[in-house]
Design goal:
This protein is mostly helical. The chain has a single domain, classed as MFS general substrate transporter like domains (Growth Hormone, Chain: A, Up-down Bundle), CATH 1.20.1250.20. The protein has 15 helices and no strands. Helix 9 runs parallel beside helix 11 and helix 10 packs antiparallel against helix 15. It is globular, with a radius of gyration of 21 Å.
Length: about 400
């Protein structure tokens, strides 16, 4: 993950340097999401049917091959469309790896540790969020994009060797013969029988829709307002990692205590949305770092509780399909979010927030004007909408009488 984070960070800088376009950056996310959305439901069937350990190993091998291809293209003349193609090829294997990892956790820990193990995943991700930009920013200036991709290739061995050694159990397979589509439909049938889980998924997808739009303009927002200062972008990314690590450490050791997991989810969602609003309103590096630090302390709480709610509600034998269903919903909603994020920022908000723009008189006093101000306004607006969804969702599901018996459930 560290090697991939460094490469992703370096590619973001390289693409923005080449194009100066938020749309070009959001397209890197879009070309990752589209193949995932098309294949994720059958990916869940594959994860439930085959060895999850071998699936993760295969995904690592494909990632290593992609790094070799990217290195060759850098030496021969890399184009932006090359990056898009590599992402498209690697995306299906990435989703297989993600689903296999999530579905393996239930077989390896007890119910009372679900929040803790979900938060440990956040701990890994946020640690990488610190180290990736911290290493990549200075290395980009010294060894360039090619050197960073070479380091990424080396990290493959640090991922594959431990995975070969560790024991990853698989659930007992059903003896009933069913087609892949029949197994996909089992996942839809299961969630229809759990209305509160269905509502939780819908609320989470709506929340993430605006989160994705905001994230799509975050990098260009910072680069545009700092004159392409990679150091500031790295500092904000590091702050994200520090906040996430602190919260993930707390949650992985504490686990939420007597607080309902559903409540933990919404506490994290509301706090994260407030942090997004403050981050978008910020105009200088110091406040970006501070607001990012606060924002990131909330999402491990949200993520750990959300994953725990899904883990406890589903049988291990169907868990690959259930996580696939959740990912499918996320991918489907990501496509329109990513399609509109770049053009909305580049064509609507950014011109409107120039000194003579149509929105400058209304919002310039709050967020400033000029390069990056439109990105900031769109980012803050997404935070406001996320907050509204989180508050209404909390009211809806709490009013529905979601209980926390032992074991914890969110439905009947």
């Amino acid at each position: 993950m560290l090697g991939s984070s460094m490469t992703t960070f370096a590619l973001s800088i390289w693409i923005f340097e080449q194009t100066g376009s938020a749309t070009a950056l959001t397209l890197t996310l879009l070309v990752r999401v589209v193949p995932s959305a098309l294949l994720v439901l059958y990916a869940g069937v594959i994860v439930d049917r085959f060895s999850r350990k071998r699936i993760m190993l295969l995904a690592d091998v494909v990632a290593a091959i992609n790094s070799v291809v990217l290195l060759a293209l850098i030496s021969s003349g890399l184009q932006v469309w090359h990056i898009y193609l590599i992402i498209v090829i690697g995306a299906p294997f990435g989703i297989l790896q993600h689903l296999a990892y999530d579905a393996s956790l239930t077989m390896m820990v007890n119910n009372q540790d679900y929040v803790r193990v979900g938060s440990m995943g956040s701990l890994t991700r946020y640690t990488v969020a610190i180290l990736g930009p911290a290493f990549a920013a200075p290395l980009y200036l010294t060894i360039g994009l090619g050197g960073i991709v070479a380091i990424d290739l080396i990290t493959f061995f640090f991922a594959a060797v431990p995975l070969l050694i560790v024991t990853i159990p698989n659930p007992e397979k059903s003896t009933i013969k069913r087609t892949g589509w029949q197994q996909v439909k089992e996942g839809f049938s299961y969630i229809r029988q759990h209305p509160n889980l269905y509502w939780l998924l819908g609320i989470h997808v709506a929340f993430e829709f605006f989160q994705i739009i905001g994230q799509g303009v975050k990098t260009p927002m910072i680069l545009a307002r700092t004159g392409n200062d990679e150091t500031v972008l790295a500092a904000v990314s590091i702050a994200s990692g520090v906040g996430g690590i602190l919260a993930a450490l707390l949650m992985s050791s504490w686990g939420g205590g007597a607080i309902k997991r559903l409540h933990l989810y919404f506490y994290g969602s509301i706090g994260g949305a407030i942090g997004k609003i403050m981050h978008g309103l910020s105009q200088v590096p110091a406040t970006w770092v501070g607001t990012q630090l606060f924002t990131s302390t909330n999402f491990p709480v949200q993520e750990g509780a959300y994953k725990a709610l899904w883990m406890e509600e589903t049988d291990p034998a169907i868990q690959g399909r259930m996580f696939a269903l959740s990912s499918f919903a996320m991918n489907v909603i990501s496509i329109p979010a990513l399609l509109i994020a770049g053009p909305l920022a580049d064509v609507v908000f950014e011109p409107a927030m120039q000194p003579d723009g149509t929105m400058a008189g209304s919002f310039g006093w709050l967020i400033g004007t000029g390069a990056g101000a439109g990105f900031s306004l769109l980012f803050s607006l997404c935070g406001v909408l996320m907050l509204i969804i989180a508050v209404l969702g909390f009211w809806k599901l709490d009013l529905a009488g979601v209980k926390q018996p032992t074991p914890i459930t969110i439905g009947d």
